[in-house]
Amino acid sequence: MIGHTIRVAKALLTAYYAHMLEYRAELLLWALSNSLPFILMGVWTQAAQGGKFGLSSLELARYFLAAFIVRQFNVVWVIWEFEKEVVSGQLSNKLLQPLDPVWHHFAGHVAERFARLPFIAVLVAMFFALYPQSFWLPSLSSILLFIFVIAIAFSLRFLIQYTFALLAFWTERASSIEQFWFLIYLFLSGLVAPLEVFPPAVREFVLWTPFPYMVHFPSAILVGLPVDIGKGFAVMFVWGAIFFAINRWMWRRGLKHYSGMGA
Amino acid sequence: MSIITVDNLGKTYPVAIKDPGFAGTLKHFWHRNYRQIAAVKDVSFEIAAGEVVGFLGPNGAGKTTTLKMLTGLIHPSAGRVRVAGHVPFRRESAFLSKITLVMGQKQQLLWDLPAIDSLRINAAVYGIPDKIFRYRVDQLTEMLGLKDKLNQPVRKLSLGERMKAELLAALLHQPQVLFMDEPTLGLDVNAQASVREFLREYNRQYQATILLTSHYMADITALCKRVLLVYEGSLFYDGSLEDLLDRFSPYRELRVELKTLPDLRSLSSYGEMAGVEGHSVRFLIQREAMTSTVARLLAELEVTDLTVTDPPIEEIIGKVFQTGNAGWQKSVKPEFDREESE
Questions:
Q1: pLDDT tens per residue, range A112-171
Q2: Which ipTM was obtained for this model?
Q3: How far is Cα B163 from Cα B183, in angstroms, rounded to an integer?
Q4: What stretches of chain B adopt beta strand conformation (E)?
Q5: Is residue B132 less than 8 Å (CB to CB) from chain A?
Q6: Inter-chain contact A11–B113, Cβ cutoff 8 Å?
Q7: Which end of chain A has a smaller Cβ tally under 10 Å, C or N?
Q8: What is the pTM of this model?
Q9: Do residues B209 and B176 make contact, with C-beta atoms less than 8 angstroms apart?
Q10: What ranges make up the beta strands (E) of chain A?
């Protein structure tokens, strides 16, 4: 059983990694297209020189660099792919195989992370070359914790988006809900502003939602800002469990509704 | 011993109805009206292990919907299905490992990668050991004449090569039951013939059961002794192909190119005309009258070209319904009066 799982995982990852390498040029552009944190870094570090934010210019620069790295690892597009597969009936091919179709998408996303890795390394190196004061080396333990947290954060974001994607069984435009969700995500995750600059009451509330754990939480760990690690894992686990239950329920209902359009 | 059992199978889809025009669009936005469309109605049949059965009917007759229910892709609205001892919609691994569905207009291979990469995924997913995987790929490549093609990106293959690669991918796990939906769609005559030959060989070697839909009469005549005919969601005929042809298509299509076109009335004296295009005329001629008609045409008119073919299945079926089969019952084979259809 475990042997079978490893073999499937290896086959999927190898194939999708090769698939991603077919898109070398696009990968660089995709990596660059996520540079919103750099723009905001400019804004915030300027602002920090004048006012009191609880974070120095240097800390803000590091935070947004970390946010940039995190963002590279938790980009998810399963909703567009899944919607296309349902609407065009391509899902049928995958339903015929004794493997839940979600693993194709999951493996595709994971493989893309590895294909993207060299580009991220180059961009980070360029950043430090241009802005050497900001250079820092996180401790080995925070790097290991960061890798672990980012894996969970990505899985949670994937699970949530895949749950919305299942709406494609009922409506042709499931991706519109992701666009709305992304707007909230943008503000509450820490992409636009670190949580440290939020009013305390708002921050308290936001920390119970899944959003900050997808960007702020891993970034703060990498930079060395104080975070409640126990609470972080607990909140991610609870949201993960909720979405997993909804996901499986919708999957069963959705398949009964599926008509394999056009196929 | 039947491997496929279908009892009173039915599928009803809700379809949103929109009135025409802007007002209709507004109404559609606020309040959707749905009509239940019965795609498949009360279909029952059994197929024995090792049989090759043709599944015929005009577009929209419910063939693909039935295939989708037999493979567990969609949930039946009524009735029962059992395939290889399983209820398809449960999609148990043991079931999925025993069947395959090839859809001529759908592809499963990854477009940008060589087919062999997709095949490796399939091998892992179906748990095929490496040695057996290599053996089967060699064997199927040989049977399909696909040598050296598996290492090229799928997008670089011709349509025929791609279709064969799709077949290979669909058969790698050596399924016992093959559902084929237009497997030769869009292929040239040579490629059609080799796919057909391959299916025949596969059936012979593995005693596999095949249920096949096709618009090409040649596919059906080459492979199927038995056919199922569906029309508007209901099973219309279940029996031997020979019987079907005798009863429903005692005709062949005769196409002649004439140097000059005489008036239509004199042309119709040669047989039933199916169409006139420029100087080319299509007749539907009874099989037994073919020789004498051709002789007469050649003697009396200036013929520049002449071909005889089987009319497309669509036309045969169309003909069946034109001649009126109103009070016809499913269980009773129709007595088809040849003279009356002239």
A1: 999 999 989 998 999 899 888 889 999 999 999 999 999 999 999 999 999 999 999 998
A2: 0.85
A3: 8
A4: 2-17, 33-48, 52-56, 78-83, 99-103, 177-181, 209-213, 226-231, 234-240, 251-258, 272-277, 280-286, 303-309
A5: no
A6: no
A7: N
A8: 0.83
A9: yes
A10: none
